């Protein structure tokens, strides 16, 4: 969704920061917004590299949809961004 110069994309869960930063870097605006825990949130989203990689991610890994969830989200979000017009146009 574009609102003026701002561009917004949602995440249906709670993504680790690296997923959000990656997606925001690819958005077509200098005012990117990521809204998490939206659209019937699914739970935690981790990258494949983070899944079960640290003891502190043990709970997050157990309550996520699996190790591919973050990668699948990133791929689909980038497709959506590519198909969307740049903000402010």
Report on the architecture of this protein:
With 89 residues, the protein is of the alpha/beta class. It has one domain. The protein contains three helices and five strands, in the order βββαββαα. The protein has helices spanning 17-26, 58-62, 69-83, and strands at 2-3, 6-10, 14-15, 31-35, 44-45. The strands form two sheets. A three-stranded mixed β-sheet has the order 1-2-4, with helices on one face. Strand 1 (2-3) and strand 2 (6-10) form a beta hairpin. It is elongated, with a radius of gyration of 14 Å. The two termini are 12 Å apart. The mean pLDDT is 87.
Characterize this entry briefly.
With 89 residues, this protein is α/β, with parallel strands linked by helices.
**What is the terminal separation in angstroms?**
12 Å
Count all strands and give the number: 5
Helix and strand pattern: EEEHEEHH
**Spatial shape:** elongated
Main beta sheet: 3 strands, mixed
Number of helices: 3
Fraction of residues in β-strands: 15-25%
Which range best describes the helical content: under 10%, 10-25%, 25-40%, 40-55%, 55-70% or over 70%? 25-40%
Low-pLDDT runs of 5+ residues are none
- From the helix content, strand content and strand pairing, which structural class follows? alpha/beta
Quaternary organisation of the protein chains: single chain
- What's the domain count? 1
Rg, rounded, reads 14 Å
Across the major sheet, the strand order is 1-2-4
Mean pLDDT: 87
């Amino acid at each position: 969704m574009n609102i003026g110069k701002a561009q917004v994309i949602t995440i249906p869960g709670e993504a680790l920061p690296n997923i959000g930063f990656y997606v925001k870097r690819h958005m077509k605006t200098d005012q990117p917004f990521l809204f998490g825990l939206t659209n019937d949130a699914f739970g935690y989203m981790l990258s494949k590299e983070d899944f079960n990689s640290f003891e502190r991610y043990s709970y997050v890994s157990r309550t996520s949809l699996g190790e591919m969830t973050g990668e699948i989200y990133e791929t689909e979000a980038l497709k959506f961004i590519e198909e969307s017009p740049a903000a402010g146009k």
